Structures are given as structure tokens and as C-alpha cells.
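Researcher: We're teaching a course module on how sequence relates to structure. For the next exercise, students receive a sequence and then see the predicted structure as C-alpha cells, so they can try to spot secondary structure elements on their own. Here is the exercise chain.
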Amino acid sequence: MPFVFAAGFGAGLLGGLLGIGGGIVMMPVLRFALGLDAPMAAGTCVTAVVFTTLAGAVRHAGMGQVRLRPILPIVMWGAASTAAFSLAFPWLARGHSRWLDLGVGAAFLLISGRMILEGCLESAEETVAMPAGMADRGWHLPAIGIAAGALPGLLGIGTGAILVPAFVYLRGWPMKVAIGSSLSCFFPLAFLSACFKAAQGHVDARAAVMLGIGAVAGSVMGASLTRYARASWLKAAFGVLFLYVAFQYVRLFFEVPS
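Model: And here is the predicted structure for the students to work with:
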């Protein structure tokens, strides 16, 4: 499967450059290029992402860009949310899979909007100041965890669109720490979701392994290229591309008879 490996490599390369999950690239490849149905694409994508999130989390932890203790409650709430939504996943897969396309399309709209905004604004490398008392609000951690767990559990895609802005704007962390901590949160959630979807029969194991291996290789190169590329330009360009992908998913939803 050279094409699948190449797609994984491209996903990892982009993830290494921009600090995003490779699932945003893998999902359209699985759905449109390989022609997998929505449930199989979701399960295969989240299984492949296990490889990339583990590699990314280890790399960022080695650079001191992971805050482990503060994210543990988020991981716990996220795991409960992932398990709950994973249990609901077979219901969607049986006759309601077009709603998966709509959900993925909505997630792509959110991610593309974030990337375009960040690409057009100044560099977000500095810490963003929090409003007074913001970090002390106890509802943040459960809310962030539940929202983050819903995406891999129900849609098979990453949580970076939720976790990175939450860590930056609600917790006041530097962008690189937010990215590293986001990947560290997502790895156990992706692993849990992958286990559920494999047991439910919604994983193409061969495609997932090839995508995952390619993505790990690509992420290493992408991380080394960050010193040469203007991340803001790349984010804006790929934000526009993902906006197009979002509309393709929404189009699929409306084309399928109810």
C-alpha cells in the first residue's frame, strides 16, 4: 500500500509542521480516496492516530513541553466521554452513518476556521494572558475533557481543535506547551477509542498500520522543517483546503437519502 503510506507520511509531515493531529489529513484520504464508508474510515483513522500521538507526545515530553499533572483530570474525564460515545458509535454505524459525515464536516469547519484565524494573526508563540480567576474555575477541566473525548469516541478524529485553544486561552499556556500537552491527552483517548472500534469491527488494520507508520516518519521530518517554514502561511493555506474538505463532507450528508 504505497499510496496509504504516502498519505500517512503527508499527514505526519503536516502535523510536525503545524502541531495538529494527522487525522485531519487521514480522514479525507480514507473516506474519499480509498472509498471506506464513514464508520470504517472513523475507526481506521483513530487507530492510525494512536501511532502519531504517541510519537508526538514522547517528542514534546523530551523537550519539556508537556504539563502532565494538570492534564490528568482532563484525561480521566476524556476517557469516560470517549467510552460513552464509543458505545453509541454502533448505533450511528447502523443506518445513521451519514450523521458521521455531518459531524466530521462540522469538525473540519471548526479546525479550518481556527487555522485561518491563526494564520492571519500574528505568531501565537507567546503566552496569552488569562482573565483574573480564570484558572480557578473548576468546571473547565470536566468540560474540556468531555468535549475532547467526544471527538475520538464518536467521529474518530483528533482533539487538537478543542484542547489547544483551551490550554492557550483558558489555562494561559504557551502554544508549544499547549500542543505537547494536547498530544499527550489525545494518545490515551485515541487508544481507547481504537480498542472499541476494533472490537466493533470498524477498523481496517492494514490501512491503519501503514498510515500510522508513514505518519510517524513524516512527523519526524515535519518537526525538523519547522525552522524553515512560516507556520502562519501554512496554517492559512491548509485552513482554506480543510474548509473545502468540510463542504465535501456536508455535501455527502445531503446527498444520502434519509
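Model: If you want an answer key for the exercise: The chain has a mean pLDDT of 78. The chain has ten helices and no strands.
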